[in-house]
Amino acid sequence: MSQWSQVQQLEIKFLEQVDQFYDDNFPMEIRHLLAQWIEGQDWEAASNNEAMATILLQNLLIQVDEQLDRVSQEKNLLLIHNLKRIRKLLQGKYHGNPMHIAVIISNCLREERRILAAASMPVQGPLEKSLQNSVVSERQRNVEHKVSAIKNSAQMTDQDVKYLEDLQEEFDFRYKTIQSLEQSDKNSALIKQEMLVLQAMLNTLDYKRKEVLSKIGRVIHEIDMLMSNMLTEELLDWKRRQQIACIGGPLHGGLDQLQNCFTLLAESLFQVRRQLEKLDELLTRLTYDGDPIPLQRPQLLEKVNFLLYNLFRNSFVVERQPCMPTHPQRPMVLKTLIQFTVKLRLLIKLPELNYQIRVKATIDNNRRFVLCGTHVKAMNMDESANGSLSVEFRHLQPKEMKSSAGSKGNEGPHMVTEELHSISFETQVCLYGLTINLETSSLPVVMISNVSQLPNAWASIIWYNLSTNDPQNLSFFNNPPAATLSQLLEVLSWQFSSYVGRGLNSEQLNMLAEKLMGQQVSYNDYQLSWAKFCKEHLPGKSFTFWVWLEAILDLIKKHILPLWIDGYVMGFVSKEKERILLKDKTPGTFLLRFSESNLGGITFTWVDQLENGDVTFHSVEPYNKGRLSALPFADILRDYKVIMADNVPENPLKYLYPDIPKDKAFGKHYSCQPNEVSKPSDGGGKGYVPSVFIPVSKILNDSTDQHSPSDLLPMSPSVYAVLREHLSPTVIETAVCCKFVHS
């Protein structure tokens, strides 16, 4: 079943989440019509490879054209219209930046997988629940409503200022008319009457000036309150959601909404600033005792400028955190002399700023590292599909200074991967007489010099962003705090949903909890230390919990991904639990689990029944990446044989737990049909009989017998039959049997 088909079967609350991230950037109609094709492309790789992204975009447009031809024959007018519109939209938006659509589609597919994983979980995790708090959603709506109201108030005040200008012009005209009269005329009754009118107009002017200043003051106060409270909280929430998304959590949306709010507020403040300038012009033409303009305008202008400074400073954000193109799902881990990308955005989108802001990138000032490559670029509205004012650095690479290289050999791997750094950015905005210096920084990054340090470096990134919302605590690992186990388990499930397409269920998470903390009644409030997660070896093992888990992720990604996505790998189950699950099942029922003693190993255990009715279990020596590179795991399950006491080879694997016929579960993943005895003319080059790998084990009745070394024998069924006719069982055993556990 395709991923899109699974999505369509979700409950309405999950479908609403899916609906949120499909828009004109990547319309849902295309996702639906091209589901199989889209899922068959490597969008993740294309998001960091321009040539590959260009080809995929071209192929996507070809696929849309083919759909257009099909619906044209069906005379589906509405669909024809929509597809033509969508094709034009995709062509226009991504022709100059094909990697952007690869990023969007990759993120959408990843978010679908996360939602599918969340739907399979009985309870929503604590972190995700906090991110989807209804109070937060209500605040977002309130912010948008208040920003709109402020914008309207500023525009209404514009009309009041215009009325004030007209009133003062009339006053000036009447006053100058009286001034031009002869002295004798000024004593007439008519002039005295006109003077009374002028006095009344001056009183009205005074009242209107006070009223306009009062309205301007209220607008400024409302902006101040909004920026100090709700808007600041919204921005902090977005930054927290970005932290969580970086370690595999839900995609963080809301930046476009924040940009709209920031832009409207900036426009309102500049509008108020212009209103104050007009009042200053009116002041130069007319002033009087008790005039409110010289008394109030300076303070109001100072407050407006102060708010503009703060608004611009808060609007300069890192939209996409530093990430190496070679490891898109491991952001904030940077390898020396390897390029990384990072994207910044100014949330105040004003046309006057296009190509006017130059951003400089630097690394923290400890002088251990420097940034090489293009580190100064101009922000513009042309590179982003949504037209935001942004800049993306694509060719930066960190370089270690020679002065510190000599001391590097004294540092252990943990010291390296726990040292946090920061990529800083600075620029200057000059607009309407204002000059504002802006600074921002990335989330803490970890520098590595060798890819072998990547797992521990990523563990540091996970722990930091799980444990704190402080964006710049570079001394965090001097005394790292403990983490709540329930939240850590949720993040570990995200590692699987984001990296290998399927998260962990409650039973799998329970097994991980037991491995981390031993047998505990409840782990909801259990606090786990950083050392226990990543530095201390597991009991009786030569590796840490995190190294063990990372090796499993790598095994799934490279060797058993389709089986994992289908949900056929139970994986995280202890030996004790697997026997409880299998003991009452039909003989030949088996399950797949990850090895607890071998890094990156997977094994299968099946249940059997002895002649006396006793139940016995058999576990094959774990398969690692070396053996799985030679033979696909699905083929191993299909072809696996054991030699019983009577030397009759048979496949003991009948049903995948709980009762799924083996071929029904894995049939679609077999690389080919099992090879039967072949004639030389049927295949094989130059008269040779084709051969296949067959995994074979010998079950020993005497548990004291020595087990033979494990191996995978390249042998066809016909050759094996000939061997049985000419060789003794002992000789065959020496050549082909694998280690196993028999109990």
UniProtKB/TrEMBL annotation:
<dbReference type="Pfam" id="PF02864">
    <property type="entry name" value="STAT_bind"/>
</dbReference>
<dbReference type="GO" id="GO:0051093">
    <property type="term" value="P:negative regulation of developmental process"/>
</dbReference>
<dbReference type="Pfam" id="PF02865">
    <property type="entry name" value="STAT_int"/>
</dbReference>
<feature type="domain" description="SH2">
    <location>
        <begin position="564"/>
        <end position="666"/>
    </location>
</feature>
<keyword id="KW-0539">Nucleus</keyword>
<dbReference type="InterPro" id="IPR048988">
    <property type="entry name" value="STAT_linker"/>
</dbReference>
<dbReference type="InterPro" id="IPR013801">
    <property type="entry name" value="STAT_TF_DNA-bd"/>
</dbReference>
<dbReference type="GO" id="GO:0005654">
    <property type="term" value="C:nucleoplasm"/>
</dbReference>
<keyword id="KW-0727">SH2 domain</keyword>
<dbReference type="InterPro" id="IPR029839">
    <property type="entry name" value="STAT4_DBD"/>
</dbReference>
<dbReference type="InterPro" id="IPR046991">
    <property type="entry name" value="STAT4_CC"/>
</dbReference>
<comment type="similarity">
    <text>Belongs to the transcription factor STAT family.</text>
</comment>
<dbReference type="GO" id="GO:0007259">
    <property type="term" value="P:cell surface receptor signaling pathway via JAK-STAT"/>
</dbReference>
<keyword id="KW-0805">Transcription regulation</keyword>
<keyword id="KW-0013">ADP-ribosylation</keyword>
<dbReference type="InterPro" id="IPR000980">
    <property type="entry name" value="SH2"/>
</dbReference>
<dbReference type="InterPro" id="IPR036860">
    <property type="entry name" value="SH2_dom_sf"/>
</dbReference>
<keyword id="KW-0488">Methylation</keyword>
<protein>
    <recommendedName>
        <fullName>Signal transducer and activator of transcription</fullName>
    </recommendedName>
</protein>
<dbReference type="GO" id="GO:0060337">
    <property type="term" value="P:type I interferon-mediated signaling pathway"/>
</dbReference>
<dbReference type="InterPro" id="IPR036535">
    <property type="entry name" value="STAT_N_sf"/>
</dbReference>
<dbReference type="InterPro" id="IPR008967">
    <property type="entry name" value="p53-like_TF_DNA-bd_sf"/>
</dbReference>
<keyword id="KW-0804">Transcription</keyword>
<dbReference type="GO" id="GO:0042981">
    <property type="term" value="P:regulation of apoptotic process"/>
</dbReference>
<dbReference type="GO" id="GO:0003677">
    <property type="term" value="F:DNA binding"/>
</dbReference>
<dbReference type="Pfam" id="PF01017">
    <property type="entry name" value="STAT_alpha"/>
</dbReference>
<dbReference type="Pfam" id="PF00017">
    <property type="entry name" value="SH2"/>
</dbReference>
<dbReference type="Pfam" id="PF21354">
    <property type="entry name" value="STAT_linker"/>
</dbReference>
<keyword id="KW-0007">Acetylation</keyword>
<dbReference type="InterPro" id="IPR013799">
    <property type="entry name" value="STAT_TF_prot_interaction"/>
</dbReference>
<dbReference type="InterPro" id="IPR035856">
    <property type="entry name" value="STAT4_SH2"/>
</dbReference>
<dbReference type="InterPro" id="IPR001217">
    <property type="entry name" value="STAT"/>
</dbReference>
<dbReference type="GO" id="GO:0051607">
    <property type="term" value="P:defense response to virus"/>
</dbReference>
<dbReference type="GO" id="GO:0060333">
    <property type="term" value="P:type II interferon-mediated signaling pathway"/>
</dbReference>
<keyword id="KW-0832">Ubl conjugation</keyword>
<keyword id="KW-0963">Cytoplasm</keyword>
<keyword id="KW-0597">Phosphoprotein</keyword>
<keyword id="KW-0010">Activator</keyword>
<dbReference type="InterPro" id="IPR015988">
    <property type="entry name" value="STAT_TF_CC"/>
</dbReference>
<dbReference type="GO" id="GO:0000981">
    <property type="term" value="F:DNA-binding transcription factor activity, RNA polymerase II-specific"/>
</dbReference>
<keyword id="KW-0238">DNA-binding</keyword>
<keyword id="KW-0175">Coiled coil</keyword>
